[in-house]
Design a protein that fits this description.
- By secondary structure, the protein is mainly alpha-helical.
- Helix content is 47%, strand content 0%.
Amino acid sequence: MADFGARLKHAWNAFTKPEEHTSWDLGTSYSVRPDRIRSYVSNERSIITAIYNRISIDAASIAIRPYNPRTDPYIPKSELERLRTG
């Protein structure tokens, strides 16, 4: 194991030495990031996107009201009693 002085010297050199760059000239190249999904614009895709947008707008326009079972005319009175007694 290196002593403290050697470790400090190496740490200091990391900040004071100029960066050594090794540049590889590969010529003209092209790369694709593998973590990105390729998107192809096509007519079918834009139609599906328009349908999804319309569905989402329709779903967002629905008014959500709190439901009160006591005011629901379709619940039998026996069920209301069960709800009241817990």
